[in-house]
Specification:
The structure is a single chain. The chain is of the alpha/beta class. It is 34% helix and 16% strand. The protein contains ten helices and seven strands. The protein has a seven-stranded mixed beta sheet with strand order 3-2-1-4-5-7-6. Strand 1, helix 2 and strand 2 form a beta-alpha-beta unit. Helix 3 packs across helix 4, helix 3 crosses helix 6 and helix 4 crosses helix 6. About 3% of the residues have low confidence. The structure holds S-adenosylmethionine (SAM).
């Protein structure tokens, strides 16, 4: 068992919608005391991973450019930093970056591109159009920290030896073994959703996907894999999990409007397997 964190936590190198940076302290008491490999199949900014810095870990996400950014930062840290140091905070440069055909470039180029747009784009959003072109407007930051060298180096060190993969959560979950810990942080069920499985869809992560996730979590728990999962405090989520998992309410501080200037505590659910 590798167990818990190996050192002080570090902040993620990107800001991510739904990121757990502000909630991590509330997650920690709900982790098993010991576990084997740590898996985060909806990695996003991977706030829990960067807090724990487990030696044995697997990170995955379906967003290919995000995943290539992790690989680029881990394997070619100096090049990512070198590139970012040359990228100015300038609208014309931002627009030129945004229009780049980035997928043909190296992982280091993708990482620098991704981090630059994350630091300078509106609210750190990641959004693409139907042609997979990044289409977030220039942000309103006075002096963004485009190349935060200490954080980039600390994140690269934490990623050393970590398995990083682009894949669907279900495939990632199949790799978990008895005694491992899987933390699932999917796109949330909207609070407005009703218990009817067909009444709404939320992007591509619709209620069928949430049901598939619940079945995946159950199958893991049945094999003795520890599961921790975050989701909204909605009836749909309670209906999915209450009979076979323990549910804990936690308060997340979330931006409440698109300008990000209003924040309040929103209750959400932590769902724990009964394996620990
Ligand atoms: C709420 S975010 C995770 C935030 C993360 N825990 C953090 O601290 O930043 C959800 C992530 O799930 C990913 N995702 C959505 N559908 C997925 C799927 N079917 N399989 C794997 N990842 C998926 C998205 O790309 C996004 O990065």
């Amino acid at each position: 068992m590798t167990g818990r964190a190996v050192g002080a936590g570090i902040p993620p190198f990107i800001k991510w919608v739904g990121g757990k940076r502000g909630l991590v302290e509330q997650l920690l008491p709900h982790l098993p005391k010991q576990f084997g490999r740590f898996h985060e199949p909806f990695a996003g900014g991977a706030a829990l991973f960067f807090t724990l810095r487990p030696k044995r870990a697997s990170l995955s996400d379906e967003n290919e450019r995000l995943v290539r950014s992790y690989v680029g930062l881990r394997d070619d840290t100096d090049e990512v930093i070198r590139l970012l140091k040359t990228y100015p905070h300038d609208r014309a440069f931002f627009e030129a970056q945004r229009a780049r055909d980035i997928d043909a470039e190296s992982d280091a180029e993708v990482a620098a591109w991704f981090i630059y747009l994350n630091k300078t784009g509106f609210n750190g959003l990641y959004r693409v159009n139907s042609k997979n072109r990044f289409n977030v407007p220039f942000g309103r930051y006075a002096k963004p920290n485009i190349c935060d060298v200490p954080t980039l180096r600390a994140c690269a060190a934490a990623l050393s030896g970590v398995r990083i993969e682009r894949c669907d959560f279900e495939r990632a979950a199949r790799r978990a073994k008895t005694g491992d810990l899987v933390y699932f942080d999917p796109p949330y069920v909207p609070l407005s959703a009703t218990s009817s499985f067909t009444s709404y869809t939320s992007g591509r992560f619709d209620l069928d996907a949430h049901a598939r996730l619940r079945d995946t979590a159950l199958a893991l728990a049945e094999r003795g894999v520890h599961v921790l999962l975050s989701n909204s405090s909605s009836d749909v989520v309670r209906d999915l999990y209450a009979s076979r998992f323990d549910l804990v309410s936690v308060n997340a501080r979330r931006a409440i409007n698109s300008k990000g200037d209003g924040r309040r505590a929103i209750p959400e659910l932590l769902i724990r397997s009964r394996t620990y």
